[in-house]
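Our consortium's second objective concerns turning raw sequence data into structural hypotheses that experimental partners can test. To show how far this objective has progressed, the report includes one record in full. It was chosen at random from the queue rather than selected for favorable results. The single chain below, 353 residues long, was entered without modification.
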Amino acid sequence: MNHAMRSRLIPGWTVAALVAGLLMTVTIGQAVAAAPMACPGGALTLSNAVSATQGIAVDDDLLLQLNGTTFYDNNDELATVLDPIQFSAAYGDQLRVVASNSTVYGDNQGLDSLALYCDANGSSQVLEPNQSQGGIGPNGAIFYDKTFTIDFTDADATDPSVTITTPPDGAVYLLDQVVLADYACADEAGGSGLATCTGDVADGAAIDTSTVGAQTFAVTGTDNAGNSTTVTHAYAVRYDFGGFFQPVDNLPVVNSVKAGSAIPVKFSLNGDQGLAIFATDYPKSQVIACGAGGSVDGIEQTLTAGSSSLMYDAGTDQYVYVWKTEKSWTGTCRQLVVKLIDGTYHRANFLFK
């Protein structure tokens, strides 16, 4: 749309003006220069052209309609100054302004100059010069009647932008790690302006790392026109797993052990996280090819146990999973797979003698 100021003469004098982020078409009695103005949201005040707080001088009665429905009717039959009138153009797209002569007083009729003011940003558009005529007919005659067509197509329809720096999408953090949220929102240049920018926690506050597993962090930005954008980042919280402790060696070493023995598989999660740390159906083992790579190291410690079990040793801050192997595994190689409820897998390879 060309926002240059313009004035033109056509029968009936028609002026197109972008008012309050709205396209206003006004038929008046003389040429008027139209200036563009943005006012997203449609919150308007009808007042004197001098200011949004100055009253409207009318002699005598004033009626306002939106789409044919009256929302304001001053009918005190007196020459008076009316308070500024606030309304929302969202309720209709045809604003009709009617001024009429009193049924009691028959003197000159007048309507002070009108302007629409944008409540959101304080900009304004003058709609009319002074309208005044004297003695034009019987009492009660309408001396001013204009309808303004409101078009919302040029209002702010652009969603604000949202940027989440922390947590980045796909980030991985340790359980109870302190991570401070970092995000921002912005409205487009010349838009209605940013109204809110709200995240799951305040910008600069710690995000939730209190439970392991998949997590999300969302931020919503809203502008003064009601447009909004929500951006969501996924992140994961993991246990602080540092590998297996002796007697089990970590990959790529292959642990050599007698089939049928019980192996103490030790590891730490940086504190007591309870005993419900394994994912369903884990730990488990599977056959792998022997000699696939990696050095071989014998298990220095085995246990006597009737079945596999899990315990936490507070003195060493270690979990001990007693893995009961089978005698039938003699001459085979297997991989022990430990999956935790945080979604991580931890593996160790074994050669059974």
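The partners drew two points from this record. The chain has three domains: 14-154, 161-238, 244-352. The CA atoms of residues 17 and 34 lie 5 Å apart. Both points have been shared with the crystallography group to help prioritize constructs.
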